[in-house]
Amino acid sequence: MKKSRRKDNELYFDSCNGCIQGSRFNERNAAEVWCHCPCGSDYFNRHVYLCEEKEINIRTNCRNMHRIMKKGENMRLFFTKMHGLGNDYIYMDGFDSRMSKPAAWPSEQKGRLAVMMSRRHTGIGADGLIFIQPSEEAAFRMEMYNADGSRGAMCGNGIRCAARYAYDHGISTNQSFQVQTDSGIRSVYVRKTDEGEHITSVRVDMGVMANLGEQRVLLKAKKEWTDFTDGSFPVQYVSTGNRHCIFFVENVEAFPLKKAAELIHTLPGNEDGVNVEAAAVEKIAVTGEKYIKMRVVERGSGETMACGTGACAVTAAAVWQGYCRYDENVEVRQPGGILTTAYLADGRMLMEGPTEYVFEGYFDIPIASFYNGTR
């Protein structure tokens, strides 16, 4: 064991065979000290305990130098906030040395961080948190967490913004590249103006849509909202990597979507959560072209301004039910704006839309409450 060095109110130790041991503290001081492992291999109160001699023992698997932090100190994290049609997420760059350590945290810690940062009044405010991390299979790996801390398999608006960020920051120097997600590898294309000066949109090959079948659910509602006198609605289930349940209705704005989503979440098969959409296929009076109007309640985030996977799911369902055709572009209009989708005859779904930066900055985490499991 190498000798520890005292500096102001901090203690530094070098590791020895996977165990770091601090010098003696009295009981009061020891109770106020927390372990912080900057290398990302250790996590505070999980690995900190007081032995009988009132010494602090910190078990770790690495040999890096570690810092002891006192309660009340903050950890400062760099972030970028972006949105696609108002569907806003906080992005953390695992390629950036400032963020390589949080990127290595386990899912439990990342989910807790997502809750803290996503709060609209006491955090940054967002629909969730997305990590952009190195990948051996693609340009980068996208790891997504909803605002409630649950992990999401895929996010259409999120992957577009992540792709834009990766291109702008040199993670990929090509306009076409691949992204690894929990739903598999996805191909993206960063579209620029003819002059090549500005990015106009990002297109994503969302893969194959899976038809999970139809169901009829009872929902007490006004008669004009449904063609069925018993108040029931036929719903279509679709998997885009995420599970979706779609109501085709006459009036999207008036439909009680929140109430419908609460009901859907209680049905068998939806125990792990499901995104719920209300949609209507309408026509442009002058041209006769069809478009889809849509609202969504997302699992883990509530009603959002837009949902990319939801737009894909609704488009697929509209084709299956004969409202739209394969291989044609469809505008999906949501409160946050318009996405363009195309359901190809080979079963793949293309989705394209804009991306925007909101701001970037630093977020200070209260060390003690965060690692003590307090949200």
UniProtKB/TrEMBL annotation:
<feature type="binding site">
    <location>
        <position position="242"/>
    </location>
    <ligand>
        <name>substrate</name>
    </ligand>
</feature>
<feature type="binding site">
    <location>
        <position position="87"/>
    </location>
    <ligand>
        <name>substrate</name>
    </ligand>
</feature>
<feature type="active site" description="Proton donor">
    <location>
        <position position="155"/>
    </location>
</feature>
<comment type="pathway">
    <text>Amino-acid biosynthesis; L-lysine biosynthesis via DAP pathway; DL-2,6-diaminopimelate from LL-2,6-diaminopimelate: step 1/1.</text>
</comment>
<keyword id="KW-0413">Isomerase</keyword>
<dbReference type="GO" id="GO:0009089">
    <property type="term" value="P:lysine biosynthetic process via diaminopimelate"/>
</dbReference>
<keyword id="KW-0963">Cytoplasm</keyword>
<dbReference type="GO" id="GO:0008837">
    <property type="term" value="F:diaminopimelate epimerase activity"/>
</dbReference>
<dbReference type="GO" id="GO:0005829">
    <property type="term" value="C:cytosol"/>
</dbReference>
<feature type="site" description="Could be important to modulate the pK values of the two catalytic cysteine residues">
    <location>
        <position position="298"/>
    </location>
</feature>
<feature type="binding site">
    <location>
        <begin position="156"/>
        <end position="157"/>
    </location>
    <ligand>
        <name>substrate</name>
    </ligand>
</feature>
<dbReference type="InterPro" id="IPR001653">
    <property type="entry name" value="DAP_epimerase_DapF"/>
</dbReference>
<comment type="similarity">
    <text>Belongs to the diaminopimelate epimerase family.</text>
</comment>
<dbReference type="InterPro" id="IPR018510">
    <property type="entry name" value="DAP_epimerase_AS"/>
</dbReference>
<comment type="function">
    <text>Catalyzes the stereoinversion of LL-2,6-diaminopimelate (L,L-DAP) to meso-diaminopimelate (meso-DAP), a precursor of L-lysine and an essential component of the bacterial peptidoglycan.</text>
</comment>
<feature type="binding site">
    <location>
        <position position="275"/>
    </location>
    <ligand>
        <name>substrate</name>
    </ligand>
</feature>
<feature type="binding site">
    <location>
        <begin position="298"/>
        <end position="299"/>
    </location>
    <ligand>
        <name>substrate</name>
    </ligand>
</feature>
<feature type="active site" description="Proton acceptor">
    <location>
        <position position="307"/>
    </location>
</feature>
<feature type="site" description="Could be important to modulate the pK values of the two catalytic cysteine residues">
    <location>
        <position position="244"/>
    </location>
</feature>
<comment type="subunit">
    <text>Homodimer.</text>
</comment>
<feature type="active site">
    <location>
        <position position="155"/>
    </location>
</feature>
<dbReference type="Pfam" id="PF01678">
    <property type="entry name" value="DAP_epimerase"/>
</dbReference>
<feature type="binding site">
    <location>
        <begin position="308"/>
        <end position="309"/>
    </location>
    <ligand>
        <name>substrate</name>
    </ligand>
</feature>
<feature type="binding site">
    <location>
        <position position="146"/>
    </location>
    <ligand>
        <name>substrate</name>
    </ligand>
</feature>
<keyword id="KW-0028">Amino-acid biosynthesis</keyword>
<keyword id="KW-0457">Lysine biosynthesis</keyword>
<protein>
    <recommendedName>
        <fullName>Diaminopimelate epimerase</fullName>
        <ecNumber>5.1.1.7</ecNumber>
    </recommendedName>
</protein>
